[in-house]
Amino acid sequence: MTxxxxxxxLRRWRDRVAPQTAGLPVGGHRRTAGLRREELALLAxxxxxxxxxxxxxxxxxxxxxxxxxxxxxxxxxxxxRAYLFQLAGLASPGPETLPAYITPSVQxxxxxxxxxPVGVTDAAHTLLVANPMYAxxxxxxxxxxGFERNGAWRTFxxxxxxxxxxxxxxxxxxxxxxxxxxxxxxxxxxxxxxxxLISELRAGSERFAELWDQGVVGRLExxxxxxxxxxxxxxxxxxxxLRVDGNDLRILVYSxxxxxxxxxxxxxxxxxxxxxLV
Length: 278
Prior knowledge:
Layout: H1 3-16, H2 37-44, H3 48-55, H4 64-73, H5 78-87, H6 104-112, E1 118-121, E2 127-130, H7 132-138, H8 151-156, E3 163-164, H9 167-187, H10 192-204, H11 206-214, E4 223-229, E5 233-244, E6 249-255, H12 261-275
């Protein structure tokens, strides 16, 4: 397969994804009903220049992470995703690798939750996609790269967060995060990226190393989280963790009881918060 064939496939798939379907604003004159290169780059977390070079056959050999991100952004079916990996000269991720594929059915679910902050992670809690409301609530993750997108990394390496934990909540969250990561490592012992994540966390965080060496077991459960937002202030929300067993994904959903102050602040955030992301 040649880079030119890869480029043609990317252009064809890009043309069929309407920007509003992908949660992007529609405005101004558009030469195509589909995604612009800049929009695909934004959704996939790569540079627009790289998308251009891929489509024009001037770049070859994209990494598996890039191909997976493009497949998600382009909303490819399982067969199309496998074909994209083939065009890139790569083998599709096997059962020994952490799943990162978001099925069309899960994507349709996300599309319907436009007024609710929703993020999807893999089993190691690496953020795969986040809708505009999630970005407005928790901070825009578009600029996060590599392990910056991993929840355990951000927790134990002291990344900025809008979540405000009590000491007890923080301890329970840390234990649950490490326990889930241990269970995930046991299911995917051959995943090199996962092994590297754990190795770097053990080397860079005394707290992580302590919990890991204690062999803590368990899992993260649904909880309430207090978030300090720079525009709407403090709001306490229910955070439900839904598990997609067939694909080993996690769906994080933040919500508030109707009629409460938190619900009113979420409605306000849907206006002022998402507008700042445009």
